[in-house]
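Ticket reopened. Same input as before:
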Amino acid sequence: MIDVPALLAAFHILAGSWEPWLVVIPGLLIGLFVHAVPGLTTSMALAICLPMIPYMDFLQALIFMTAMYAGSLFGVAIPAILLNVPGSASAVGTTFDGFPMAQAGKHNEALGLALAASCAGQAIAYLLLLVLAGPIASFAIKLGPPEMLIVSLWGMTLIARLRGRHLARGLLAGVFGLLIGTVGLSARGAARGTLGFDLLLDGIPVVPAIVGLFAAAELFNLVGRDYIVDDLTHRAVVASRILAGMRDTFRYPGTLLRGGLLGACVGILPGGHAIANLLSYSETKRAAKDPEKFGTGDPRGIIAAEAANASSEGGSMATLLALGIPTGGATAVMLVAFGMHNITGGPAFMRDHTDLVYAVILSSLAQVLLLAVIGFGFIYAAGFVVKVRLRALVPIVLALAVVGSYALTQTMAGPITLAVFAVIGWLMQRFDYPVSAAVVGLLLGRMTEGALLRSYQMSGGEIGYALTRPIALGMVVLLIVSVVLPYFRSARKAKAP
Amino acid sequence: MKRRDLLAAGMASMAVLPAQADAWPRRPVTILVPFDAGGTADRLARGFAQFMPKYLGQPMSVVDRAGAAGMIGTSWLLQQPADGHTVMLTPATPFIPVNILVTNARYTLDSFTFVNAQWTDFTVLLVPKDRPWKTAAELIDAIRANPGKISTGVDFGSVGHITTIALLDALGLGPSAVRIVTFDGSGAMRTALAGGQVDFNIGQGEGAAFIRDFVRPLAVFLEHRHPDYDAPVINDVLAGYKTSVPLINGSVRSFVFPAAFKAKHPEDYAKFVAAYRATLDDPAFRKWLKDNQMAGDWVGEERTTEIIRANFEALKKYKDLIKS
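Engineering reply: fixed in the latest deploy. New output:
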């Protein structure tokens, strides 16, 4: 499936000139800093950089944008691990085990794990792309609302796995999240739960709500303590321990590979990259022999979430590069850059510019190595957060969160959402309701509802329509097997002497 | 004594202000875009922020306030002082009429001055390439022969959606004659169309450029054929069915002021229009527009308001059918 002459041409383009490489490091650095700036998202950062695009040649522009994308995919993990603040939906899974590790003084290892997993995930995705970009993309656009519905239902099974100590409270928290997720205008134009506020027509602003639930609630819990890490001897930034974390990542090749492949598959779905990390976390926890360890600082949790999040980028790049079709905000902005260079997407792009597509993929593989180096330096610097006294750190982080939520929504809706959900989050923790289940519900609510509505509209309400969607039927079977199988296994185990 | 002196000094400086205030704009002008960064309105606004200050005499900055199909940003514009230091750049139709008619916005068309329909899109009927219909008539006949079986993708409340309903209405069919699949935005809808998830779509022509290889155009909703789409004019097709549809413009991107600004400060408004027209005539800006595949037409306030009113009336006519 590899077009060898085009691949050689791509090598030639990349090796023959240093100009395409000029933009890689600035791109990675901007990407790493994106989520350090409150309220900035990857697609906003890409949009802000659009005016520079006409001054670069086309390949340079693509490499610059993929480098930014790659940097930001990992950058978002840093506040998730150190402060329990996920800067976007794609880092929610990272907080589950990342922050407990940081609290236990293993912040060096946790950041190292996240960096290596992120690099490996990206490498897996781009290797897949190199071999299969065309077929992946053609398959991707055959997936529609019914398939999306099955994937979101699959994601929802995570709610039961995040139940905490009480199943009923876990489910209740998940349902609460789902309901909150449906606030606003539906795709059919009906306003639900807006209480007459125009600001709620677009729904609850997701990122401020997540930051409120996770971070603000957690920060209240930290009030009585001096530092994130209690033990003075562990309160250090040690390069060798970051490296050890990076090395440790490869002691779990199964988790890494599962995360990478799952992320690449889910990333090709529209909106899929937001939930890839959750699905991977969920599957890894299900497959583990000791699922009770997850959520207490298990390295596999970080690896699963980060590898899947990173590789979901490759999935969405496949449809962009091979078909010129964006499946998310960031790739939509990249398509604008195509237009600025008078290049129309579509299958003709990959056919006429195979060498360019290969050059982008190859340079992305090289970026992965650079990201490992630059990311290492970046987390070395960021790690010093653990040395800051909490009585200084908590107000700073809260202030940044408030400013960031304002920047995201450009109205008071952001800060108000943050405040309301901080109180809700604190109450939920106080009474042992799992906050993470509510967040998963919140993330999946809108997506699931839209997919369900469109599946119903497309079918005209006829059950027989399902027979025309073999991929969806296959996914239903897999979903049922994956939910039921563990019970069979445990039943067999119980019978065995 | 000190306090009184300060007060006096303050009063004196205030008295001086009106003399300086003659020269509008007195401070930098904000271009409000009621949609996300990276969209067409935002990119056009950033072009103006680069080229227009030369003619305006003050810098311009761009602020994006997205939400509720432009309603959040548009409401915010009306809360600003109507002194011309905030101007909105938006696809005025369909969004302002949709806000008013569908989502019950607390403003009317009379709340605004529409400066100029600078960049107008048109509507086109597309089917995925693997579908059997080669002409619009074949598709129409198929819909009539199989009511409720053929599906169409729409972005809820868009001009494409209204035109779909208008076309069915013109053919004597209700909205339930086809399966209407509602998407959260035109991007998701076009991806689904390219993948053949739905059987046809009526939507904006220029936005569909990136899926052109996946679809076959069957008709354009214009008075004349369009060079980008090899398809007949819809009302020529409908002549065979002895009916016709109103041709509703797609996105009409225009600068928009609160109506109070022009009413209170007509000279300042004229200054803005002069600076705007000078920018449109600037060869460097024209080249920028061309590089970014954008249009820079001048049709003026009167014609723009006419277009928007006509679209508003068409939307009003079909509004109940859309909601059903």
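Chain A touches chain B through 53 residues (CB under 8 Å). DSSP finds 21 helices and two strands in chain A. Please confirm and we'll close it.
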